[in-house]
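One record is given unchanged without comment:
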Amino acid sequence: MFCAAVMLTGSVLPVMAVGTDAPSGEEVHIYSLSSSDSDPLGTLKKQMIETADSSEAIDEDTSVLTAVGFDSTKTGIQNVTLHLTSGKETLSTSYTEVAAVKVTEDTAPVIQLTSDTVDLNNGDEWNASSYIKYLYDETGKLPALKESGTVDTSTDGTYEAVYTVIDLEGQTSKASLTVNVTTPGPTPEELAAQAEAEAAEEAAQQAAAEKAAQAAQQTAVSTSSLSYSNSGSNPYSGGWSNCTYGAWQAVYENLGIALPSFGSATNWLASAQAAGYSTGSAPRAGSVAVYYGHVAYVSAVSADGSSVYLIEGGYCGHYNERWAANGGTSSQPLIGYIYF
């Protein structure tokens, strides 16, 4: 119940229009309300009852207010004739005044985010408030803020965070933020380092494999040497104490080829070429290596071609098998190879 003084039926409280001088002892009432008020007449009625000068009570719930010249959608000050009746059948009281009604524009609170979307790495900390750029309410007081939506930075996925602001009149505004959580991949530098490490590991594995193969090949050759005899019509004398005898004999017993006499060791390459045999500088299993002052049969070549396995005579005066560097030595360089 609100207590207010009322005039008899038909009585009017004279009030001057806004901008004019009111008669002595009379007051111009200015009522204020928001353009967003859902019940503007109810608001005006409440204010009118509170300011009325009377000892008779007017029930706010049963009383009726009419406002002539009032437009709640128009902002600014309006001259309005307000007529309030008690609403009681036993009384015929009313209260009328010409008043100024000020309608103010009431806007919703404002919220702005730093971005619509944010990308986070898996495991990053989630701080919803850090993405708020701006909050404002026309009252000068910050609106209430509510944050909703679950963002789990421990699980990759797309999440939505919703921000809701509420002002003193209950008006709300919302903003949403899309949060992408991903597990970061390696950087370009890390990828380059990884590729380099993999290449180095592959090269090391290949070198180890080649070395193992070479060692196995050397072992296989050295442990499976032929038992050479003196078969065939070897044109050279001296037996295995003579390198030319040994080279001729190794070709014969390994390849079944009875070579002609090519003369001294140093002349073997030129003599073989004259006889129509192919020659070259690349080592090949089943060829004869010709050095200055020495010849030997090549029974195997290392995987990288850097060494050859020789069967030879005249090595310290007897039969011999050994691995030797391709190209010979400084004191006994290679001239070339005879192919069969």
Remarks:
- Confidence is low (pLDDT under 50) at residues 1-25, 222-226.
